[in-house]
Amino acid sequence: MTTAQVLAFGGVVALGAMSPGPDFAVVMRRSALAGRAHGMATAVGVAAGVFAWAIAAATGVAALVAMSSVAFTIIKLVGAGYLVYLGVNALRSAWHSRDFRSDPDAERTAGSGLWGSFRDGLLCNALNPKAAIFFVALLPQFLSADAGLVPMLTLSLIAVVITAAWFLTVANLVAAARRVLSRPAVRRFIDGMSGTALIGLGVRLAFTTAR
User: Fold this and answer.
1) Fewer Cβ atoms within 10 Å of its own Cβ: the N or the C terminal residue of the chain?
2) The whole model's pTM is what?
3) Per-residue pLDDT of the chain (211 residues; tens, 9 = 90+)
4) How far apart are CA 156 and CA 159, in angstroms?
5) How far apart are CA 153 and CA 54, in angstroms?
């Protein structure tokens, strides 16, 4: 691979990471709800999901998922259900919360530990078959059919680093404004918007086709 190819790959991955989607909504809500550490853990989870899909694409597993209607449908329905589940929880929090400190969903989120935040980020990305399609379409443009392990791992790690950098930035920016975001009215607005977005993305994912 040339430097130009690496830079081009990184640019495409960066654009994909910065596109609004469920990953962004989950990282933003976790950061606003439970603070910087939880937001960063969610960001790392998203990056772990990206790494899994990049490796799967490089080894041909993601292509099988994209080509198999049964596997694609199972993953997309599970992923859609998970997004709807997160969205419903956010809407319930918006409906019931009157004070940030007494919000049961905030307490549940903070009490679930960093693992819970990491898990949300990981599952949000790993259960999205659109990520498989993205990498199946992208990697062949930069890897030859006989590419070895080193180029494959290099591109996978580049994708992870760029994704992690973007979402860690998002987590820190949102956490820095948490004093404002934790006000009851603002918090209900964020919960309502993120919940609606997650449910909408889940429904959209459920009707996504592999081709």
Assistant:
1) C
2) 0.74
3) 678 888 888 898 898 888 878 888 889 888 887 888 999 999 999 999 998 888 887 777 766 766 777 777 777 788 788 778 878 877 877 676 544 444 445 545 544 678 889 999 999 888 887 777 777 777 777 876 666 677 778 888 898 999 999 999 999 998 888 777 666 676 777 777 777 877 887 787 777 665 5
4) 5
5) 9
Instruction: Report d(CA 63, CA 58) in Å as an integer.
Output: 9
Distance from C-alpha of 11 to C-alpha of 28, rounded to nearest angstrom:
23
Check the CA dihedral 46-51-53-54 and report its sign.
positive
136 Cβ contact partners less than 8 Å away, ≥ 6 residues apart:
57, 62, 63, 66
Residue of 44, 178, 48, 199 lying closest to 101 (CA atoms): 178
Distance CA 202, CA 100 (A): 27
Give which of 126, 163, 113, 116 is closest to 12, Cα–Cα. 163
> What's the half-sphere exposure (Cβ side, CA atoms, 13 Å) at 155?
31
80-89 in b/e burial notation, b at 16+ Cβ within 10 A? Answer: bebbbebbeb
| CA-closest candidate to residue 173, choices 50, 21, 40 | 40
Which residues does 6 contact at the CB level (< 8 Å), separation at least 6?
154, 155, 158
Give how far the C-alpha of residue 17 lies from the chain's centroid of Cα atoms, to the nearest Å: 9
